[in-house]
Amino acid sequence: AQTVTQSQPEMSVQEAETVTLSCTYDTSESNYYLFWYKQPPSRQMILVIRQEAYKQQNATENRFSVNFQKAAKSFSLKISDSQLGDTAMYFCAFMTPGANSKLTFGKGITLSVRP
Amino acid sequence: NAGVTQTPKFRVLKTGQSMTLLCAQDMNHEYMYWYRQDPGMGLRLIHYSVGEGTTAKGEVPDGYNVSRLKKQNFLLGLESAAPSQTSVYFCASGLAGLYEQYFGPGTRLTVT
Known about the structure:
The complex is a heterodimer.
Chain A: E1 3-5, E2 10-14, E3 19-21, E4 24-26, E5 33-39, E6 46-52, E7 60-61, E8 64-69, E9 74-79, E10 88-95, E11 103-105, E12 109-114
Chain B: E1 4-7, E2 10-13, E3 19-25, E4 31-38, E5 42-51, E6 54-57, E7 65-67, E8 73-78, E9 87-94, E10 102-103, E11 107-111
């Protein structure tokens, strides 16, 4: 079974600065997807970024980028130029294609952006 | 497109009462999922369905039943609610063979 670990329960960052959220996972699969989801106070789950394990290049979406270290089974999220609207809970998640596309989530990290 | 909708948004139950949560999607997705979110636990999969008429257990299925009689709807039932089922429930849907899941807005359920 796959497991996803987010060891930091909370983080805080000053507006306009950069913050990195950590995630590690454990799997015996070679092909899989990794995701970061954002959950603002509205409670809506929003997909921030995804990474396919077979791709060596780290994914980037505007101010969001990942550092994917397959051998270390590490998948961290970097948020550049933090904005007040980035204040949210962030979940790391894992999926094995074909396994009914089920998501396994980490416990989440609460990020606060200070003005 | 409304995407994924959930009914109701909030509900308070007494221990032992029953209720059904409704999830509906208008994207013609084959796969549908029910998750629960508890503080410090992330989201955990309760049950899922890979097509009309089929359901399967997830990580935490005890105390819940599901049905998928129509492709667009996925119902989650609590036959005899317990305080341990106080949680926020999320429904999600996705296309077979693709990775992205689309989430509903969630239902906050309190069992007293």
